Amino acid sequence: MAMSFIRKLMLSSLIVLIPFAASAQTFVFTAIPDEDESKLVERFRGIADYLQEELDVEVKYIPVKSYAAAISAFRNNQVQLAWFGGLSGVQARALVPGSEALAQGVEDEAFYNYFIAHKSTGLEMSDTLPEGVRGKTFTFGSKGSTSGRLIPEYHIRNIFNEAPEDVFSRVGFSGNHTRTLRLVEAGTYEVGAINYAVWEKELENGNINTDDVKVIWKTPAYPNYQWSIRGDIDERYGDGFMDKVREALLAMDDPELLESFPRSGFIPTSNENYEPIRSVAEQIGILD
Amino acid sequence: MYLSPTARISLLFLAIAVSALFFADIAITTANPWRDLGQFFLGVATPDFFSTEGLATALLRTVAFAFVGVALGAACGFLLSLVYRFYPVRMFCAFIRAIHELFWALIFLQFFGFHPLTGVLAIAIPYSGIFAKVYSEILEESDPGPGRLLPPGTGVVSAFLYARIPDCWVQMRTYTAYRLECGLRSSAILGFVGLPTLGFYLETSFSQGLYSEAGAMLIMFYVLIATIPLWVKPKLLPIYVLSAPFFLGEGMPIVWGNVERFFTEDIIPAPIRNGEGLADLGAWFNDLMLNEALPGIWNTVLLTQIALVATGILALLAFPLISNHFGGPVRRTSGHVFLVIARSTPEYILAYILLQLWGPSMLPAAVALALHNGGIIGHLIGRQTNTVLLRPDAPTGFNRYSWELVPRVYRSFLAFLFYRWEIIMRETAILGILGIYTLGLYVDSAIQQIRFDRAMVLILITALLNIGIDILGRYIRRKLALQTMPTC
Questions:
Q1: B29, B109, B245 member nearest A69 (Cβ)
Q2: Topology of domain B50-266, per CATH?
Q3: Which residues of B touch A135 (CB under 8 A)?
Q4: Domain with CATH 1.10.3720.10 in chain B
Q5: Which residue, A278, B286, B362, B391, has fewest beta-carbon neighbours within 10 Å?
Q6: How far is it between the farthest Cα atoms of chain B?
Q7: Residue A242 contacts B, CB cutoff 8 Å
Q8: Beta-carbon contacts of residue A229 (< 8 Å; ≥ 6 apart)
Q9: DSSP secondary-structure letter at B275?
Q10: Tens digit of each residue's pLDDT (9 = 90 or more) over A230-284
Q11: Is B165 within 8 Å of A2 when comparing Cβ atoms?
């Protein structure tokens, strides 16, 4: 009995090692998890359906749990297209030679951030990040986020000449923008940095109690989200595929799809447009 | 004043934990922690089993990953246990089991991506190390008598199969079944890094405050674990193990070039990769040690010592809940339910829940570790007290507890506690991924910044720290002549 059991165990382990059948020509994309997952899944399943119709190949969206997972999947050629933030796009394209920033939202050309504060701080809207935030608790979004981490950290360092950990009594990473909003609204953190688009959308949908949480500063503009695609895409899906994807993204005009981002439309962009993001990331030490 | 060695060591650890409290970051930072906790319990009380389409699939995947991972781990562990007496093998096993499942998963994710192999290996590798150690201990303790009675000329394999294995079989089977339960927990938490198991959906629901959905998943998970004796039968086991690989889900295809790139480029320290000199490598390493490794080690050790003592206190408080010497059947049943829930919930999930409710500090992590580990040890020594026969005129109530039972089980209590010391430390390190400043936080940050060279050094340091604690724990147990059966 012992032996037969062991034999069965070994046999079954062999089966595991047989590579799994892969559907070879499915075009797969992902997106950084910057908002509540159910919202992302709903949004990008819509995009997958749209692209499938436009491109004539099977298109699939896979949700990931972290910014790094999105970058790794892109780098490892497990996804060929991704909706990145400014920073994650720069990181991903640096790792995949020949990859290109295809299109950005109209709003992404000059994106900005809000610093928000819980009512208990008594802070109000001002022209710069007020000195009153010193000693408060503060939350970023995700560690790899442009609007949740990079830009806020850059401005905090710039304004106070100190690291965030020295300015604030406690610094956390909420995970995504929706959670930053919820945590500051609940007073878990007194101050937070949030992507303005998420704030505006939640405000419009009536999901923010503006008695509890207020915008206290709007950052200067910077380039943000974009669709990035791998450089070897034409070899795999046929000549001109990259152009087809670009055209499909730029031609997206279904108001419901655009509203889900929310973007008013998509415009062409290029890797060079993200040079400012790269240099800020280098200054802060996130990029080598 | 004379103190027994067990009392002395207990007081020493208590003193260390109390002084660690002064340095530790203990706080509730949420504005309304109790309201959130109330909402969470309301969610558990009003579970919504039908909102997530993925619940059934998630449970299936959780079971499948557990079966494949544990089976593979058991097979490899068994083979390794045969050569366990060789020092390099022992070191190798100590090393692979010192790295937590989630760290293994994070490593494999970088080159296998979301392929089922990532989850399977993340469980199978550390489990092989654990199985190898425990199987070899069991084999070593088997009665040499039957072997001596074999006729001369009996082959080694026959001798092994007919004289050694039968004597150990029951113990090995019990332990393997027990690891399967651990495997289910490991499998569930792999979802937190993106594999398609329960943790994936739990994180999704929880982070959005959908407590009824999260509650439904937790309840299903408890039911799954509590009913193991009903659905895991020896006769069905081969069917489960053979069919499990087909239920792991598809995932994404593996690109083998990525594997090569990971080992030949990604994990090579940046200064070497960029062809800079040794001086740069020194600076790189110094920076890593000073700014990440040392603070990480310090916090990991602090939290481990606090959690260890909290675990001990909780176990001592909890064991009467299921002991036959106290209370009636009603209280014992509710005691059992409490302890089953405490020990079936992986520390990682408990810590995740408490962190959401109380905000980030060491407190939720310490409470989570104490609840889970205290639940396990409380259950084990509670069961042990049921074998104790007291005189009919033995004192009752608190006197029975403090003068009759605690002294009788204290040695095995300490043995379990020191056995779990290393396990608590491994978990403490991993909880950093949730935002507590232990080693896991720095590993996660390095991975988020796509700096796998730094991540690998930090994982290596975590492993060495674990091996150190393991050696120290074993030394103390030997010094005090404490014996224990391995627990999960």
A1: B109
A2: MetI-like fold (1.10.3720)
A3: none
A4: 1-31+271-488, 50-266
A5: B391
A6: 79
A7: no
A8: A80, A81, A99, A100, A102, A242, A245, A246
A9: T
A10: 999 999 999 999 999 999 999 999 999 998 888 999 999 999 999 999 999 998 8
A11: yes
